[in-house]
Design brief:
It comes from Vagococcus teuberi. Helix content is about 10%, strand content about 25%. The protein is of the alpha+beta class. The chain has two domains: about 35 residues; about 190 residues. The protein has a four-stranded antiparallel beta sheet, with no helix packed on it.
């Protein structure tokens, strides 16, 4: 058996040697030619379009970034809360491109949100076109909810115990980036006036290109006839707060290298 293997190996090597000699001879006669294809890839810096894959719609117009940056982050709006003695939760609303929130969706407003390109989904997007595969971290800090439009002789109140919750979702990317490795999103709850937490993270060789996090506030019918799952951003407010119009600052921060997110 060993002898047969040895002989077989000699025959293969001999065949390869003969083919190699023939190739060299043909090239010398001008019958074939070996060459190279060359290209240089540089970091991107122009404006890009939102992911065209379902689900629709996007989180807003994409902002230009040099090579790594937050390309969109929608303002968040919630339906009014009627105070009770218990905690009330509201889903983040879809927003018109004019900045007007769409209230009572599915009840009063029958807008076909999934096919309306003038409507934005609550969420954010990150673009990484450095071409290094270094990874990144996106964090969010929720400021205090401060009462707005307070008369000069009245007391300005702060909403007590408010929390903003994000579910874990699957990030979207463009159709021609299916070979890219997706970043990871995390389910996080933010206390008003609390510390920063990681919402999305790309480890080494992940999150290259455009990645968008869309938090659907209702199940959407998609162009292929399927539907998306409802996964909204939610605001929870305890009862017995002061009535008024409140606003909190959302501070987004993108770091150019990944770090392990802290546990809830």
């Amino acid at each position: 058996m060993k002898k047969n293997i040895y002989l077989s190996s000699l025959l293969v090597l001999g065949t390869l040697f003969s083919v190699s000699q023939l190739t060299v001879a043909e090239e010398a006669q001008g019958l074939n030619k070996a060459g190279t294809a060359n290209v240089q890839i540089t970091a991107g810096s122009d404006v890009i379009t939102p992911p065209s894959t379902d689900p629709y719609p996007s989180t807003g117009p994409m902002l230009p970034v040099k090579d790594l940056g937050i390309t969109s982050a929608t303002d968040l709006y919630f339906d009014a809360i009627s105070l009770t003695s218990t905690t009330t939760t509201r889903d983040a609303l879809y927003v018109k491109s004019t900045g007007t929130p769409i209230t009572n969706i599915g009840v009063v407003d029958n807008t076909d949100i999934s096919k309306d390109d003038t409507v934005y989904t609550p969420g954010y997007s990150v673009t990484d076109r450095r071409g290094t595969g270094a990874g990144w971290n996106l964090t969010l800090t929720l400021g205090d909810f401060i009462e707005q439009n307070v008369a000069s002789d009245d007391t300005e109140h702060t909403l007590k115990g408010a929390q903003l919750s994000f579910p874990e979702i699957t990030p979207n990317t463009t159709k021609d980036a299916s070979h890219s490795v997706a970043p990871t999103s995390f389910a996080k709850t933010f206390d008003a006036g609390g510390t920063a937490k990681v919402l999305m993270s790309a480890a080494k060789d992940q999150g290259m290109g455009l990645w968008e996090a869309r938090y659907n506030s209702r199940a959407l019918e998609l162009s292929d006839g399927s539907t998306t799952e409802k996964k909204p951003i939610q605001l929870s407010v305890p009862g017995n707060n002061y009535a008024g119009q409140y606003q909190a600052t959302l501070t987004w921060n993108l770091s150019d290298s990944p770090a392990a997110p802290t546990a809830e």
